[in-house]
Design goal:
mainly beta, 13-stranded mixed sheet, 3 helices
């Protein structure tokens, strides 16, 4: 769990932010804990146009989760430090999203409806405030059948959409760019014996109140009136959701929700 290139990584951290003690607040010699990472079930959202979107299925491929402290919340591709240190050395130490305190490596097909454990992360003891995660593209290597609608996409959402007496069914597969990562999604937690580490997909930004589906007129997307909306690749709806789920606003939990 300790950095594989301890001297090089430590020297880099010291050069950029001061002594090792400043790279997260406590020693990298602490023994890591094995803590379960728990996916919280996704909730319905209400849009600015008055539609209620209630998910009936939601699956997403997450890659290489890293739990951090003290980082700047942003989204993008691996940053300057990641390029210098490399993915192989992104163990507890310093990384672009903050001081990396632990990790859950590998690919994980997350069922956001069921929620539940994704696996055990190895995490240094102490407070955490963020989680960095990659957005992968689903494929047969994820144990999916050939006809699975998630294949070729990062996120598959099926939902019931309603406004007044009108009801539609929705199915939308959302792709993401290769190597896309989210940095600094809120994850207020303390790594200690008996703790769990929460991750979440949010259709509504818990701080600003914006919905990922804001601006979408679902009635206009059903011109034949059959009550079913099946978003085509590169459609405005797919592109809107792709942009929305590239930001940390739609991941993680607030401190009030984890109390």
């Amino acid at each position: 769990m300790r950095p594989r290139t301890r001297v090089a990584a430590g020297a880099l951290c010291a050069a950029l932010v001061g002594p090792i003690g400043g790279c997260g607040g406590d020693s990298l010699d602490a023994e890591p804990l094995a803590l379960p990472v728990i996916a919280h079930p996704v909730a319905a959202t209400v849009t600015d146009l008055g539609y209620t979107v209630t998910p009936t299925a939601a699956r997403q491929v997450l890659v290489d989760l890293e739990f951090t402290r003290g980082g700047e919340a942003h989204a993008g591709w691996p940053g300057f430090l990641s390029l210098l240190v490399g993915r192989a050395h992104a163990h507890p130490g310093h990384a672009a999203g903050g001081a990396v305190r632990g990790e859950l490596p590998g690919r994980h097909v997350v069922d956001w409806m069921a929620g539940g454990p994704l696996g055990e992360a190895r995490v240094l003891p102490g407070p955490l405030d963020g989680v960095d995660l990659g957005l992968g593209t689903a494929g047969p290597e994820d144990g999916l059948s050939a006809g699975d609608g998630l294949i070729g996409a990062n996120l598959l959402i099926e939902a019931t959409v309603s406004r007044g007496a009108q009801v539609w069914s929705l199915a939308v597969a959302v792709p993401q760019d290769a190597d896309r990562r989210i940095y600094g999604a809120p994850c207020p937690a303390t790594a200690e014996d008996g703790a769990t580490l929460p991750v979440a997909l949010r259709l509504t930004d818990p701080v600003e109140g914006d919905s990922a589906f804001d601006g979408v007129d679902f009635e206009a997307l059903d011109p034949d009136g059959d009550g079913h909306i099946d978003a085509a690749p590169d459609s405005p709806l797919v592109n809107r959701l792709k942009r929305a789920f590239q930001t940390h606003d739609h991941y993680g939990l607030t401190s009030e929700e984890t109390r």
